[in-house]
Amino acid sequence: MENEEEVVKERRREEEKKKKKKRRRRRRRRRKKKEEEEEEEEEEEEEKRREEEEEDKKKEKEEKKEEREERRRRRRRRRRRRKKEEREEEEEEEKKKKKKKKKKEGRRRRRRVGGCYCYIYIVARYHARAIYTVEVSLRQQQDGSHTRYGQTLAITVGLFIFLWTPFQELLEIVCY
Question: Where is this region: Disordered (predicted)?
């Protein structure tokens, strides 16, 4: 009897041992599974982070490129504007120069005083006063040749009116 009981006890012990082993194995497996799942999740999270970082870097690069392009565009626009302004200024200066030349040349009037011709140029007008330059060209009656004098006189309107009548004397003074 005792032997049978001992045999039964031993069987139970062995069965319990087996059960314990199984439990341990299950626990280990579960732990391993959990750990593996956690590791996988961590790896996935890390991959996501990496992808996000890469996307962020790409975005930053694109933004930098866009900023550079915008700067280049602005610079080009500024250069174009400057060039246009410079061209316009140069054109205006050329126009002014042409106008000035025209003003210097002015309107040419030819008047005959005695045996002499005088060319009168209106140079500039300041309100009521117009300034005339008088260029004298003389014809000597003996030769028939012209002698031109580069002497010019700046005359206002009033003086011109005053001087016109005794202009022959002035010409004679210049001539002789």
Answer: 1-107
